Amino acid sequence: xxxxxxxxxxxxxxxxxxxxxxxxxxxxxxxxxxxxxxxxxxxxxxxxxxxxxxxxxxxxxxxxxxxxxxxxxxxxxxxxxxxxxxxxxxxxxxxxxxxxxxxxxxxxxxxxxxxxxxxxxxxxxxxxxxxxxxxxxxxxxxxxxxxxxxxxxxxxxxxxxxxxxxxxxxxxxxxxxxxxxxxxxxxxxxxxxxxxxxxxxxxxxxxxxxx
Length: 211
Known about the structure:
Elements: H1 2-20, E1 31-45, E2 55-67, E3 72-91, E4 94-114, E5 122-143, E6 146-151, E7 158-172, E8 175-186, E9 199-210
């Protein structure tokens, strides 16, 4: 129940910030909404992963920024993220491949520090925690040109990650375009088996626009 209450609280916070960002509602708080998307590489790691390697990852989502000081901002995001990993074995010219596709609804709460505020472009670093809700998990198995997809049900319903990155923004029209590099590191196992350790990590490049 604790995880569900945490997720509900974060969703309510995001909804309130988005409502405040509507013109005329949040102007005095200087809240700015935006959208971002991008892709990169993801992987699973831990004592109970064997020969896993990276596979493509992508993310798309909404965010709101709120000024704290002239150099500090908080950011709340609501993202759809695909992570996972790849296991591949080759023998006698045949390739056996397992792709784990893990879809999450992710809610990061980030702190941004601008060290070139007011310049062109503005540069910043950021970090913070993220809670991710497991939407769907699949295993795609490919062997000798045959492919089968099966559901994976031995994963936790939520994940907890630490995120850090760097970015730049540049004024464009009514807002600012942005470019970010983000690393996500799993803080807990996503496996349901007792004592099993399987965690997520990813590195993505994101582009977006803040109004």
